[in-house]
């Protein structure tokens, strides 16, 4: 079974008592990654961290043939598509569970 990894992306100069965002992300491959990030970090930074993790571990995206991956939460059900949104604004603080899903292209 795929393992679990933990990634901390906190500023070195931060106040240790300041709030953080703790995100558990399940990739479409079954891998689980826990990220601890600044609440003001952007969704694009979260996505970049996931891409870097994939690259480091040689895990390709399941999205192929023009399919796209999306970042979603089960409760409340939501797809996060605005990569300029902060984790805090997206409602992902202090903690959240997210899933990366592969979008099936609409039949034409």
SSE pattern, N- to C-terminal: EEEHEEE
Name the poorly predicted regions. none
Across the major sheet, the strand order is 1-3-2-6-4-5
**Total beta strands:** 6
What sort of overall outline do the alpha carbons produce when their principal axes are compared? globular
Counting helices, strands and paired strands, the structural category is alpha/beta
What's the total helix number? 1
Give an overview in words:
- The protein has 108 residues and is an alpha/beta fold.
- It is built from one helix and six strands, in the order βββαβββ.
- The protein has a six-stranded mixed sheet, with helices on one face.
- The longest helix is centred in the middle third of the chain and has 14 residues, at 43-56.
- The radius of gyration is 14 Å and the shape is globular.
Brief sketch in words of this structure:
The chain contains one helix and six strands, in the order E-E-E-H-E-E-E.
Attribute tags:
108 residues, 31% strand, six-stranded mixed sheet, 1 helix, 6 strands, alpha/beta
Topology:
Layout: E1 4-9, E2 21-26, E3 32-37, H1 43-56, E4 69-73, E5 78-80, E6 95-102
Parallel strand pairs: 1-3, 2-6
Antiparallel strand pairs: 2-3, 4-5, 4-6
